[in-house]
Amino acid sequence: MTEQTREKEIKKYRAYDYSLLFLTIFLVCFGLVMIYSTSAYHATKYYNDATLFLRKQGIFALLGIPAMIVVSKIDYHIYVRKFPVIRIRPIYLLYLLCMALQILVIVIGDEIKGAKRWLEVPGLGSFQPSELTKICVILLTAYIAYIAPKRLDTIFGFFRVLLYVAPLLGLVAAENLSTAIILCGIFVVICFVTSRKKGYFIICGILFVAAVAAFIFLGESFRGERIDAWINVETHPKGYQTLQGLYAIASGGVWGKGLGESVQKLGFIPESHNDMIFSVICEELGLFGAIAVILLFVLLLWRLFVVAVNAPDLYGSLIAVGVMTHIALQVLINIAVVTNSIPATGIPLPFISYGGTSLMVLLMEMGIVLGVSGQIEHTL
């Protein structure tokens, strides 16, 4: 075999992870089906257009999937390389952009259901900057850990690294505690994987739980009400949505009522195409469908794990770990809320719940990870 032939053979093994790509596209398509099933009644009643939410989400999917493929062809090191003219790394520009957007949310953001989390973009609708912040935290934390991994061997080094991300986390937490918890989880897991000494993370975990508890009970009163609603879901007025979701899960049985046959989505579960979509999946597709969806996410996380283990360098590995943590936390929290295992919080089910900003960001993250997988030799 000639040297030229060998090079061609090696290139065949450098193609990115098609299993990860197809799993992602399948979840997006399944999400579109469920969004139509769960939103048709609501869209017809209030907007006289049964396909309204399907079309909106479909547009983001049609834009996001090609964008994901384009991003997957970009060398992921470009995000931390200095520009030749202005001599600044793109990740720092993204950090400054996210900081500015989070400040704008606090100052002029649209208040929806008592929370300021969105900015109105003319011609495009609402945009949630905290979703873009997830990409920023993944790339920034992975880069800091990559250039100074030994720093994370001590608790003092951990807090020094935290200082870089803390301003952004604080701005997000001011209006969106649930997203801030996910961002903290991403940050901590990346640091934990990088560190060779894990013991001090127990102390950090205790401090984190104490900080969240203080934020809940000493902050806005509605957070304390959510705890009460969780404990007294059958009697508390704020527990109505969760209770209806539990009815949907129970009525689905093993095999479900059939796609499109949910009763609870007919006004009983408010905006069932959003965070409570998993309860309708359980009602229409039953326990079998719910387990199938969970297994799809498990397969997706497994492919992300494979990329993380085989990545060509620590930076690529930590990016995959960050994306894997992001998706895993959102799936766990969403299902836990729907089943009333934890207090209610606004976390969508990745790729399936309605939300254009969330879908686009997730697809961008998957594109970056596919870019990492594309540089792995002799794998997959």
The pLDDT mean sits at 86
Please give the radius of gyration in angstroms.
21 Å
How would you classify the helix and strand content by structural class?
A: mainly alpha
Strand content: under 5%
Report the major sheet: 3 strands, antiparallel
Kindly state the percentage of residues in helix: 55-70%
Shape descriptor: globular
Q: Alpha-carbon distance between the termini? A: 23 Å
The ordered H/E elements are HHHHEEEHHHHHHHHH
- How many E-type strands? 3
Widest sheet: strand order? 1-2-3
Count helical runs. 13
Could you give a short description of this structure?
The chain has 13 helices and 3 strands; from the N terminus they run H-H-H-H-E-E-E-H-H-H-H-H-H-H-H-H.
Describe this structure in words.
The protein has 380 residues and is mostly helical. Helices cover 68% and strands 3% of the residues. The protein contains 13 helices and 3 strands; from the N terminus they run H-H-H-H-E-E-E-H-H-H-H-H-H-H-H-H. It has helices at 3-12, 18-47, 52-72, 90-108, 129-147, 155-175, 177-194, 200-218, 221-231, 240-252, 277-310, 314-338, 356-373, and strands spanning 110-112, 115-121, 125-127. A 3-stranded antiparallel β-sheet has the order 1-2-3, with helices on one face. Strand 1 and strand 2 (115-121) form a beta hairpin. Helix 4 packs antiparallel against helix 5 (129-147) and helix 5 (129-147) runs antiparallel to helix 6. 42% of the residues are buried.
